[in-house]
């Protein structure tokens, strides 16, 4: 559908945005490769929408440049950029029919015979029979598809999506995620997707940039970010993490240590191990380290069965404070001396009837599944209470 | 309908509604009925007999149709100018942050709040001091002035409720500033602009107090009615009044029919 040989890389160099004394985006360098599905993920007010709007040209950067391929577009008006946007809440023109909405971009560029292209595009998003309706006569999901069609018909080098699924209910959102992913694969255009929904970002994107406070916290493939978070914000914002404050016993680095070297830490009597390669900071013996593990990596056994646990695994004792059954799994909250309120997700394959609130249990997991973070940051960054994760994104 | 009290309770809203409607429409009914009167004296205040004479010869009274045509011209021009200016002001007030914005925002509504008679007298003082000949132009200037605030109020409400993303979407879809305004902004603001224009026309057409002070020797339709009421009221005044009422009702009905057809076109 589009000329794939044209350089469609989006390059942001030192781009930033200030509003008076408030800095929405700190100087940012970002390269989004041609044809990729890129997600900007963050809570409300983290600067992700501002970044997107600077690519679209709707916001003028305070410093820095925007390149599309080899062409600098920093000072180009939005209507002169080969970039189109799917707006939050769609922004369909209420006074125009669906057909005219989709044809809008073509007509403004002086293309006379638009009928065939518009009809084809409406077929692509399965809205052929709705061409003569007005936007308010369509459902939310249909309006969303019109918004995508209206942008895609112009064959932009980059398609920008600003929280495009925010207004849809959960089931429709899942469906549209797959639909958008399918369209992206089909047309091969670079998609830049802004969202506050971490599941959405991980499902759809090849690369996710997690933003916080106007900065990119971490950038990488979804699995990489999830398994190896670099900061507590990423660890908490992407899924759930159990973070344990520990003291380093053996740093495990240096010339003697090989690539497979381990760091040994202790926390309230428990000795835990983690691979040096999964530690985001350089540990010092005797220093502090935050040790993290994902809830689904932990196995739970009753205290009576301690001898069944294989040697070499990380172990913590505790007591079940709460458990909730959610069908495919059961989520436990464990109180332990090491850390209050550890979360454990156990698949409901064989359920041990003794694992009820009040029971003494042992948590164990493979040391390979442990990651280490710099202890000089808030353990609560990126949690609900701290970041105020909201469903509504302010545009400024 | 076994219990009259229950019936009353169920229909109290309808009864109150019809009562209010009657209260509002009764004066118009009287005007219409007396347009078919054939009064014996100079005054059309007592019913004599049915007659179509006045309807057959609406311009039969000296100078009346001239004043009517003048009023229509003034109403048309002041509507045009006030709508254009008022729309521009409304957009400026909503969209731009400029120095005197707060002051303009509140001062623009002053003509609405100020007693008309005070405004009329001050305007006259102003015109006389500036040595301007009273007549068509002074009336027009005065009318544009008081129509402006109504247009600004109507258009501002519409522009405020407009999603700014719509214009961003237009700019994103290759529409330059002019195209964005003509293709997106203006059509969406149109209902507000139309409401402001209609209000302007009605206000200007039947204004008496300000016009009376600033007209010099020029006579508009409301002034003609006032003047003739001293010496006698020709039936033709009722004819013009009834015609205006019917035209207004037809315009409203037509508007509603267009709206209904749009609603029917939508499924569900």
From TrEMBL, chain A:
UniProt-listed InterPro entries: AAA+_ATPase (IPR003593), ABC_SmlMolc_Importer (IPR050093), ABC_transporter-like_ATP-bd (IPR003439), ABC_transporter-like_CS (IPR017871), Mo/tungstate-bd_C_term_dom (IPR008995), P-loop_NTPase (IPR027417), PotA-like (IPR005893), PotA_ATP-bd (IPR017879)
Keyword Translocase: yes
Pfam family, one: TOBE_2
One Gene Ontology molecular-function label: ATP binding
Every ABC transporter domain range: 10-238
EC number: 7.6.2.11
Catalytic activity, as annotated: ATP + H2O + polyamine-[polyamine-binding protein]Side 1 = ADP + phosphate + polyamineSide 2 + [polyamine-binding protein]Side 1
Keywords: ATP-binding, Cell membrane, Membrane, Nucleotide-binding, Translocase, Transport
Gene3D superfamilies listed in its UniProt record: 2.40.50.100, P-loop containing nucleotide triphosphate hydrolases (3.40.50.300)
Domain of life: Bacteria
Positions in coiled-coil regions: none
Function: Part of the ABC transporter complex PotABCD involved in spermidine/putrescine import. Responsible for energy coupling to the transport system.
Family named by the database record: Belongs to the ABC transporter superfamily. Spermidine/putrescine importer (TC 3.A.1.11.1) family.
Known partners and oligomeric status: The complex is composed of two ATP-binding proteins (PotA), two transmembrane proteins (PotB and PotC) and a solute-binding protein (PotD).
Protein name: Spermidine/putrescine import ATP-binding protein PotA
Organism: Streptomyces avidinii
Gene: potA
UniProtKB/TrEMBL annotation, chain B:
Membrane topology (UniProt): Multi-pass membrane protein
Record-linked InterPro entries: Bact_Polyamine_Transport, MetI-like, MetI-like_sf
UniProt-annotated location(s): Cell membrane
Chain segments annotated as coiled-coil in the UniProt record: none
Membrane-crossing segments per the record: 12-36, 74-94, 106-128, 134-155, 181-205, 235-258
Keyword Glycoprotein: no
Keywords from the named record: Cell membrane, Membrane, Transmembrane, Transmembrane helix, Transport
Keyword Chaperone: no
ABC transmembrane type-1 domain residues: 68-258
Protein family according to the UniProt entry: Belongs to the binding-protein-dependent transport system permease family. CysTW subfamily.
Protein known as: Spermidine/putrescine transport system permease protein
Originating species: Streptomyces avidinii
């Amino acid at each position: 559908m589009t000329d794939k040989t044209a350089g469609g890389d989006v390059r942001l160099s030192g781009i930033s945005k200030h509003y008076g004394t408030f800095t929405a985006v700190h100087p940012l360098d970002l390269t989004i490769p041609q044809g990729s599905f890129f997600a900007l993920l963050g809570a409300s007010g983290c600067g992700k929408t501002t970044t997107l709007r600077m690519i679209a040209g709707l916001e003028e950067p305070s410093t820095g440049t925007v390149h599309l391929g080899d062409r600098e577009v920093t000072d180009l008006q939005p209507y002169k950029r080969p970039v189109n946007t799917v707006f939050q809440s769609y922004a369909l023109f209420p006074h125009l029919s669906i057909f005219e909405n989709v044809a809008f971009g073509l007509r403004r560029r002086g293309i006379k015979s638009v009928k065939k292209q518009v009809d084809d595009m409406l077929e692509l998003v399965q809205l052929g029979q709705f061409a003569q309706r007005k936007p308010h006569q369509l459902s939310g999901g249909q309006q969303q598809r019109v918004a995508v069609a209206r942008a895609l018909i112009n064959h932009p080098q980059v398609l920008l999506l600003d929280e495009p699924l925010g207004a849809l209910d959960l089931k429709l959102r899942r469906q549209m995620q797959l639909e958008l992913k399918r369209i992206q694969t089909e047309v091969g255009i670079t998609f830049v997707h802004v969202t506050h929904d971490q599941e959405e970002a991980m499902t759809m994107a090849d690369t996710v940039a997690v933003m916080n406070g106007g900065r990119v916290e971490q950038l990488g493939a979804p699995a990489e970010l999830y398994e190896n978070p670099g900061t507590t914000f990423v660890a908490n914002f992407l899924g759930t993490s159990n973070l344990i404050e520990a003291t380093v016993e053996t740093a495990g680095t240096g010339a003697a240590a090989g690539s497979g070297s381990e760091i040994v830490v202790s926390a309230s009597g428990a000795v835990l191990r983690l691979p040096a390669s999964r530690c985001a900071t350089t540990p010092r013996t005797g220093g502090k380290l935050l040790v993290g593990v994902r809830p689904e990596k932990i196995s739970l056994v009753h205290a009576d069965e301690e001898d069944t646990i294989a040697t070499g695994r990380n172990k913590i004792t505790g007591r079940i404070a709460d458990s909730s059954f959610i069908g495919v799994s059961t989520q436990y909250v464990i109180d332990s001396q090491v850390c209050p309120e550890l979360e454990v997700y156990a698949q409901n394959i064989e359920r041990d009837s003794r694992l009820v609130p009040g029971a003494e249990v042992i948590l164990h997991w493979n040391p390979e599944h442990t990651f280490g973070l710099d202890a000089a940051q808030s353990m609560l960054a990126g949690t609900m209470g701290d970041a105020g994760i909201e469903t509504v994104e302010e545009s400024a | 309908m076994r219990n009259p009290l229950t019936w009353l309770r169920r229909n109290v809203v309808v009864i109150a509604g019809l009562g209010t409607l009657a209260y509002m429409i009764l004066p118009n009914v009287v005007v219409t009925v007396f347009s078919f009167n054939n009064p014996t004296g100079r005054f059309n205040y007592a019913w004599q007999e049915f007659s179509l004479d006045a309807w057959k010869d609406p311009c039969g009274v000296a100078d009346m149709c001239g004043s009517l045509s003048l009023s229509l011209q003034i109403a048309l021009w002041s509507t045009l100018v006030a709508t254009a200016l008022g729309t521009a002001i409304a957009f400026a007030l909503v969209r731009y942050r400029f120095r005197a914005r707060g002051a303009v925002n509140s001062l623009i509504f002053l003509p609405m709040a100020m007693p008309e008679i005070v405004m009329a007298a001050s305007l006259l003082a102003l015109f006389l001091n500036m040595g301007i000949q009273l007549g068509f132009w002074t009336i027009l200037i005065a009318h544009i002035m008081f129509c402006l605030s109504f247009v600004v109020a109507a258009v501002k409400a519409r522009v405020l409720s407009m999603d700014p993303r719509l214009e961003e979407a237009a700019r994103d879809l290759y529409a330059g500033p002019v195209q964005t305004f003509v293709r997106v902004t203006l059509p969406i603001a149109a209902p507000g602009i139309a409401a402001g224009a209609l209000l302007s026309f009605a206000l200007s057409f039947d204004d008496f107090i300000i016009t009376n002070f600033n007209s010099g020797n020029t006579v508009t339709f409301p002034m003609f009615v006032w003047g003739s009421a001293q010496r006698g009221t020709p039936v033709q005044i009722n004819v013009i009044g009834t015609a205006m009422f019917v035209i207004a009702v037809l315009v409203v009905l037509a508007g509603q029919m267009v709206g209904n057809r749009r609603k029917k076109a939508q499924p569900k």
